Amino acid sequence: MSQDTTPNTNPDTTHDTILWTSDDADAATGGQSTTKWDATGVSIDTRTIQLGDLFVALTAERDGHDFVASALAKGAAAAIVTHRPAGVADDAPLLIVADVLAALGALGQAARARTSAKVLAITGSVGKTSAKEMARAVLSHQGRVHAAQASYNNHWGVPLTLARMPADCDFAVIEIGMSNPGEIAPLSRLTRPDVVMITTVGAAHLQAFDDISGIAREKASIIDGLSSGGVAVLNADIDSSQVLQNYASKRQVTQVLFGQMSRTWKLEHVALAQGQTLVQADTPNGPLMFKLSTAGRHFAMNGLGILAACAALGADPVLAAIDLGHWVPPAGRGTHEVVTFDPAMEHETLILMDDAFNANPTSVTAALEVLAAYQPLDNVGRIVKGRRVAILGDMLELGPHENAMHSDLANDPSMPVLHLIHCAGPRMRHLYDALPDTQRGQWAETADGLVRKAAQLVDAGDIVLVKGSKGSKISLVVDAIRKLGHPDAPKGSI
């Protein structure tokens, strides 16, 4: 596979030490190298390959073998292939295997076996990438941490992350996702985590399952890969929590619950302020307070779960709680920024909440609660009255009841305090039609239709949430709103 949809596909290794030798890779994969080589990283993408990388010629939309010559020309140490591709020199450094994807999995398995790092694996319908980044942020002050920079959580992303893991790291955080039944357990067995965490269970990828309980059982199967004496950190507050707990009980693993319904890692109070979350919790070590530099009850829950996971890993949860304050969401997953219309005019700004990477009913409810907690600014802009504005794209892969799930958002508890809702996509038309006239903004068949109206959608003083599934391309609206800002004005998270 020459490329994927996520940039920076190989930032997980430092490229200052040897990660794989030809002898080690031969032994791990059962393949045969054509010559001796040493690799300092692993790459699947010729666009971002670095000097010294081992190029893995995966086959997806394109056959990675077509890019081996390019990878070697850019300084790859060697390439994993099933045969010598056309145009590749006879003396080129190749690792010839029967199956490239299986070989990548074998490298991941060998990398996991040779490290003494404590490994945390995270799954969930919502929040697994944010939770992974929280774990990276807080554990990095307590040891050397390995985690993928991007959301590498599928059948090639997990083994790639493992294959890039240095033997001498202290902690590893692995994100595991799924689109269909039966995908999580094999990846967890490959990972062999010491601790697993399930953030939540919601109606994501529901089209592949009969009901939410089926999704819960699939998420719970991350427990199948737990190492001996491992710990399952589970959300106590979701409706399907008992499904998760029953699964863990049958596997006879230690359970740690977090949330308002937990007796150990108990969420006592959450306060959402302008771009911040203040959290009070009760823990096995006594009361604990922590602050997040972004707003969101769901972030508070994930933060508490991460603290419980840190304790299970043997890290210091109190130090981790302090470091949570430095964490910010990944791009497109709830980042907040100021867009300045006129630097010469004080307060000629709006706050943009970029949550355009993914969406399902659970995550939309969480995002709307954050939007509702913000106070817009009056007496600026052409409208004068500051507004809470939601710009929503289709939620995808929700199954046969998707239209009702969209229209039901009109009854979300945060809706009454929102001023204006713009919608894009045929599914979001059902929400648009269910809205009262006073809240109904613009609707377009596609996100591009709202892009052309960006200047009409928002104004200075507004708090603007943009959310939808990645496939809805609602992120185009985020870019369009950013472009309304003054090019010389500073932008960033708040």
TrEMBL record:
Keyword Nuclease recorded: no
Keywords: ATP-binding, Cell cycle, Cell division, Cell shape, Cell wall biogenesis/degradation, Cytoplasm, Ligase, Nucleotide-binding, Peptidoglycan synthesis
Pfam families xref list: Mur_ligase, Mur_ligase_C, Mur_ligase_M
EC number: 6.3.2.10
Coiled-coil boundaries: none
One Gene Ontology cellular component: cytoplasm
Keyword Ribonucleoprotein on entry: no
Binding-site positions, ATP: 124-130
GO terms, biological process: cell division; cell wall organization; peptidoglycan biosynthetic process; regulation of cell shape
PANTHER family membership: UDP-N-ACETYLMURAMOYL-TRIPEPTIDE--D-ALANYL-D-ALANINE LIGASE
Family per record: Belongs to the MurCDEF family. MurF subfamily.
Protein name: UDP-N-acetylmuramoyl-tripeptide--D-alanyl-D-alanine ligase
Organism field: Octadecabacter antarcticus 307
